[in-house]
Write a structure and sequence with these properties.
By secondary structure, the chain is α/β, with parallel strands linked by helices. It has 3 domains: 6-150, no CATH class; 153-198; 209-458 and 505-550, Rossmann fold, CATH 3.40.50. The chain is built from 19 helices and 7 strands. α10 (301-310) links the parallel β2 (287-292) and β3. The longest helix has 41 residues, at 158-198. It is elongated. The relative contact order is 0.10.
């Protein structure tokens, strides 16, 4: 006796495209192989479901185009279809079984615990659910195509009507997806992050020292700093902590921060930052850093602590917030998100700095992590400052659209890998990873020093749109120390894997993925600054301290 609805389910499966099932299964299996970031069962299931649906859509689309052109197509037969279904099920089962080993391979490389033994069953359930929803959406799209085609068929030849029906349905779905739906999602996310940013947290109390940003004497209100700004201003180290580590007298580092709600426009926020810098005496310090934050306004404390220790606290850092959204989301929305603010801040600070006597002004550096690195790069035009340049920049985890990074990688010395390139004679731009290769380079620096700190396994850095149809350069030749040897390039699927990797890139331990270690910042800052008074024992103690504080 048949169960209720079983006939409908059987009819549905019989209606599925054989070519779509075959290609969808291959996409599903490929999606289970490792990429750059380990994936949880839920994330892997979503990725595999999407990959199956995309593969099915491509296969089914090829069949429809074939039929549209009037080319001969084999008739459907029961036994070949059954054999194909069994083969697809077998391939999927083997891939699900191997998935845990593939994930554990990359997890071991980046010091994460192995996955749970029940993972294949969880993966299968989530994959089937996601794929089923997407296939139903595909059926809905097909119904829209037929509806529009039937309407157009009254006036146009059948093939023209079919093509017009497809175009109209695609336009409708695209407008819903990229317009109403995407706008609603972004509005909800922005509102959510804005409310989170406004929360006053007890672990970041308002400073009582009049010299600090957000105090009662400050030009910037405590509430207007936002969550990230309040955390940055309230954090250490102070002069006493620096002295205990170095054994030398130290100064209290200055941290000037202007939140998104502190002023109306980027130019107003930049002028407010400059006024607060002058109030605190930032231009009287030996070192001045313009630090561009990530999308949420966050600065990596590991980096800030490292440079403040190295300079014995004789440093001022200025930061201006430009959004609430996480960097990976801002990258998908607009690759130059925040550039306007970064340029306004640099121009305002640089012009004042340039007006000071050369012997009576601090050394000027740029810094940024992730989207902050991209916007910091875009903030200054070297042709505008070449007569009186800043002294250097440290850009960590630079996103793939970063123009200077792209040029340096594209024009790297032949034979150097894309994940650790050598650029020309190394006098201006150098790259480093978890292992400090800057100290091993005997070549002399020029007057301007730019260092890129990046991990070979960071998808924010190495995502490429072209990975959908072309193997990226960084996958060829020797792999980085944190990249799985089992990683392979697959058309379309690798693109989907890397896109998901970007969203989960901060779910790794420090020193891997898109999470940068304070101990690694220490080496990069030493190279950029070009000077420090720290001996080897003190440096190792500081390195250990930064590593402990990040755990």
């Amino acid at each position: 006796m048949r169960l209720p609805g079983s006939a409908m389910v059987t009819a549905y499966f019989r209606s599925l495209s054989a070519l779509g099932l075959a290609l969808g299964t291959l996409f599903l299996a490929a999606s289970l192989t490792p990429s750059l970031i380990p994936r949880s069962a839920a994330m892997q299931g979503v990725l595999s479901g999407i990959s199956f649906a995309v593969g099915y859509g491509i296969g089914h689309g090829v069949r429809l185009v074939w039929l549209y052109l009037g080319l001969p197509y084999p008739r459907r037969a029961a036994w070949p279809r059954m054999l194909l279904s069994l083969a697809c099920a077998a391939v999927a089962a083997v891939a699900f079984w191997k998935a845990s080993d593939w994930q554990n391979g990359i997890r071991i490389l980046i010091e994460m615990p192995p996955v749970e033994s029940s993972r294949p069953f969880t993966l299968g359930a989530i994959t089937i659910a996601v794929a089923a929803v997407l296939l139903l959406l595909g059926r809905l799209f097909g119904a829209a195509v037929r509806l529009f085609s039937a309407w157009a068929d009254r006036l146009l030849p059948p093939r023209v009507a079919a093509l017009l029906g497809f175009v109209l349905a695609a336009a409708l779905f695209w407008s819903i997806g990229s317009g109403v739906l995407m706008r609603g999602v972004l509005t909800a996310l922005d509102s959510s992050y804005a409310r989170y940013d406004a929360l006053l947290e007890p672990e970041s109390p308002r400073p009582t020292e009049p010299g600090k940003t957000g105090s009662s004497a400050s030009l910037v209100g405590w509430q207007g700093l936002g969550r990230a700004g309040r955390e940055i201003v309230a954090a250490g180290p102070d002069a006493a902590q620096i002295t205990r580590m170095s054994g030398r007298p130290a100064r209290e580092p200055l941290r000037i921060y202007v939140g998104l709600n502190s002023a109306e426009t980027p130019e107003d926020r930049a002028r407010l930052a400059l006024a607060e810098m002058q109030r605190q005496g930032a231009f009287e310090r030996a070192t001045l850093v313009i630090a561009t934050p990530t999308g949420t306004g966050w600065l990596d404390p590991g980096s800030q602590k490292a440079v403040e220790y190295l300079t014995d606290g004789d440093i001022a850092t200025v930061t201006v917030q430009y959004s609430y959204l996480p960097s990976w989301l801002a990258l998908f929305v607009d690759a130059e998100y925040g550039t306007e603010t970064a340029r306004a801040v640099f121009a305002t600070v640089y012009h004042h700095w340039e007006s000071l006597p050369e012997g009576a002004r601090p050394r000027l550096f740029l810094h940024g992590l992730s989207l902050g690195a991209l916007n910091s790069d875009l903030s200054a035009d070297l042709f505008d400052v070449i007569a009186d340049p800043f002294q250097g920049a440290l850009w960590a985890g630079p996103p793939f659209p970063s123009p200077t990074w792209q040029q340096a990688v594209a024009e790297r010395v032949p034979g150097s890998p894309a994940w650790l390139p050598q650029f020309r004679d190394g006098s201006v731009i150098r790259f480093t990873t978890q292992r400090d290769v800057l100290a091993d380079d005997p070549r002399p620096w020029g007057p301007l020093r730019i260092v890129y700190l990046q991990h070979a396994g960071d998808p924010i850095v190495f995502f490429e749109e072209t990975s959908a149809w072309r193997e990226p350069d960084w996958m060829r030749g020797p792999r980085g120390p944190d990249v799985s040897p089992d990683l392979r390039w697959y058309p379309v699927v690798t693109f989907l894997q890397l896109a998901l990797d970007m969203a989960i890139a901060t779910g790794t331990p420090p020193g891997y993925g898109h999470v940068y270690s304070g101990a690694h910042y220490l080496d990069a800052w030493r190279a950029v600054l070009g000077r420090d008074a720290w001996g080897a024992p003190e440096l190792e103690a500081l390195r250990a301290l930064l590593a402990r504080e990040q755990l």
